[in-house]
Amino acid sequence: MTSNLRTRIAAPDHATAGEVIRIRTLIGHPMESGFRRDATGQAIARDILVRFECRFESALVFAADLAPGTAANPYLSFHFRAERSGTLAFVWRDQNGAETRDQHALVVE
Q1: pTM for the full predicted model
Q2: How far apart are CA 7 and CA 51, in angstroms?
Q3: Edge-to-edge order in the sheet of strand 99-108
Q4: What is residue 69's DSSP assignment?
Q5: Of 3, 5, 54, 1, which is closest to residue 28 (Cα–Cα)?
Q6: How far apart are the C-alpha atoms of 92 and 89, rounded to whole Å?
């Protein structure tokens, strides 16, 4: 199951071998905890992302488990040592198993 949430990836396109680069991600998601009520007093259904993973050429380089207390539009930042060229693959998974995917090519010189 896939979803089409808006994602943003901020990572360099080029790096020098051995350079530590900063990767920043943002996904447009309400992260609704299920504890709030709407204007009519009805409970707003829970809708959260539960997992984020970043892989470089299939090797896991960063992962985070997310919880109901995570803010809407989760922003994550982490570092990665660039050793060779390849593709960074990003996956956000929600509570129902739906996934949003994005990728970024990295050229290492």
Answers
A1: 0.91
A2: 15
A3: 14-15, 99-108, 86-94, 49-56, 59-65
A4: T
A5: 5
A6: 10
